[in-house]
Amino acid sequence: YVRIAGNILFVGTDATSLFYTVLSTETGAPTTWNSVTQLSAFQDAFVQSPTNIWFVNGTSIYRTSDVSVAATVIDSGGVALYRVHGADKTIVAVGDAGEVRYSINNGITWITGIAPAATNLRAINVVTARNWFTGGADGELYKTTDRGNNWETSPIPNAGSGSISAIVSATREVIWVAHND
User: Fold this and answer.
1) In whole angstroms, what is the distance from residue 134 CA to residue 113 CA?
2) How far apart are the first and last CA of the chain?
3) Is the Cβ–Cβ distance between 176 and 154 less than 8 Å?
4) Listing from the earlier edge strand, what are the strands of the sheet with 132-136?
5) Whole-number pLDDT of residue 155
6) 3-state SS track over the chain
7) Rounded distance between C-alpha atoms, residue 101 and residue 113, angstroms
8) N or C: which end of the chain has fewer CB within 10 A?
9) Which pLDDT tens digit goes with each residue over 61-113?
10) How far does Cα 94 stand from its chain's mean position?
């Protein structure tokens, strides 16, 4: 993953090193690259704000308020998590076997939600605190409008084949889905 938190660009690796650099305010170019050793090699990161950055890997959710400092475990348990995203004070992480773990109070408490399906989820997009999209190994796109209490499939071409690896929102009405068919 590659993310920007304020004026800091950071890059995750498949090892425990996270690389970061301050971007020039005039040109956007990187300055000196630095690294910080994390507790784990993270699968994904979500920048809620420059001082609230979330990571997932293994069965844990991590948070840091400064990308130059190692993140700390906020919640652990359940099955492997692969993606994290959020909106407002809602943070959602998804993973294997339909795992959906979320917080509606900015990570103070976590809830294991209802799985949309018994598939490995590899994408999450939180459009609003109540409206989320997820997808994964079964090639289906799932939508909830009530914080994951009820899920329905959303029609996409070739649904049910391939896998979904990424979802992004252009607006509240338009989303883009990376569907490996």
Assistant:
1) 13
2) 22
3) no
4) 121-126, 132-136, 141-144, 152-154
5) 87
6) CEEEECCEEEEECCCCEEEEEEECCCCCCECCCEEEECCCCCCEEEEEECCEEEEEECCEEEEECCCCCCCEEEEECCCCEEEEEEECCEEEEEEHHHCEEEECCCCCCCEECCCCCCCCEEEEEECCCCCEEEEECCCCEEEECCCCCCCEEECCCCCCCCEEEEEEECCCCCEEEEEEC
7) 6
8) C
9) 999 999 999 999 999 988 999 999 999 999 999 999 999 999 999 999 999 99
10) 8
Q: What is the pLDDT of residues 38-57, one digit of tens each?
A: 998 999 999 999 999 999 99
Cα–chain center distance at 32: 27
* Separation between Cα atoms, residue 138 and residue 120, nearest integer Å: 8
162: left (phi over 0), alpha (psi -120 to 50) or beta: left
Residues 6+ apart with CB under 8 A from 16: 37, 38, 39, 40, 41
The answer to whether the predicted template modeling score (pTM) of the entire model surpasses 0.90 is yes
Output the six-digit token pair for 27. Answer: 């040109």
